[in-house]
Design a protein that fits this description.
eight-stranded mixed beta sheet; six-stranded antiparallel barrel; globular; disordered C terminus
């Protein structure tokens, strides 16, 4: 009897151990409950950050841009224009129609003095040219930013052979189509003239090749043409300037040593006088029909 009782007690104990063991195993195998984390929404691309000045970037040149026709005389003629220094050692930029076909080109340093151009590079499809002389002047820096609608520009040079300047506002793009002694199609920027010195409503011929500065004092183009009747000024696109520098194997000096005039609506006239005074902006004289004279030769590299 006693043995039977012990047997029953042992069996009951083993059953209890088995049940509690299974309960323990269940607890270990059951994953702990954790609240489900909310899924992160897919990130949307950030919209373009608005510029501090609020101006909208100008679209790239397009075949649909309006066309402006310019007549190029059949023969080159003696004339004056404007150039600006690129490196302080004798490299200058001007307009193609100022330097093309000249027998001699001088970058003037005074009424009857100047640096004779030893070489010239003309862009084959744009109104841009590069001159080389034995001496230079304090140089400028080119802008890195793309042009923006309604931005302000300052044009400096020698309209009609005399010191002058103009303020304008960027309104769009166009394709400048030159026909005559040479035929080219190039993208240009279109500016609405706001003010000029000296005052007047005559053409700005002679300012061609002159630099166009933004408000930071960096060059954003060169003046190449204008429409007095409509009050428009056309400037070369930076793509044409970069192409000319690359094809001529010319590298402008760095910005750290460049002149940054920073013109404003209050000081822009004085800035022009300073640029001309240090010859950063200089008058160019093209002389034609000099059979026995020196003719600057074309160059394609600084070491010609």
């Amino acid at each position: 009897m006693r043995g039977s009782f012990l047997t029953v007690l042992v069996i009951a104990a083993l059953v209890a151990i088995g049940v509690f063991g299974q309960m323990g195993a269940f607890k270990r195998e059951t994953p702990r409950y954790e609240p489900e984390r909310p899924r992160e929404a897919p990130r949307r691309p950030r919209p373009e950050e608005p510029r501090p000045d609020g101006l909208r970037p100008l679209p790239a040149p397009s075949p649909g841009d309006p066309t402006v026709d310019i007549a190029v005389p059949a023969e080159a003629r003696s004339a004056t224009g404007t150039a600006f220094s690129l490196d302080g050692r004798g490299l200058w930029m001007t307009a193609r129609h100022v330097a093309d076909g000249c027998s001699r080109i001088f970058v003037l340093t005074g009424p009857r003095a100047g640096y004779l151009s030893r070489g010239v590079y003309v862009h084959p499809t744009a109104d841009v040219a590069i001159l080389r002389t034995d001496r230079g002047a304090p140089h400028i820096a080119f802008a890195r930013e793309e042009p923006r609608f309604n931005q302000t520009a300052y044009h400096y040079g020698f309209p009609k052979g005399e010191p002058g300047a103009a303020i304008s506002t960027l309104i769009g793009r166009a394709t400048l189509r030159a026909r005559g002694r040479y035929n080219t199609n190039e993208p240009v920027l279109v500016w609405a003239e706001r003010e000029r010195v000296p005052e007047g409503d005559e053409h700005l011929g002679g300012i061609s090749g002159g630099p166009v500065f933004d408000t930071a004092g960096r060059v954003i183009g060169t003046t190449v043409a204008g429409s007095t009747r409509r009050g428009r000024i056309f400037t070369s696109d930076m793509s044409s300037i970069r192409a000319a520098l690359g094809r001529a194997n010319v590298t402008p000096a760095g910005e750290s040593s460049a002149v940054l005039p920073r013109p404003t609506s209050r000081n822009w006239v004085e800035i022009g006088a300073e640029l001309r005074g240090r010859l950063t902006v200089a008058k160019v004289v093209c002389l034609v029909d000099q059979p026995q004279g020196f003719r600057p030769r074309n160059f394609a590299a600084p070491g010609w």
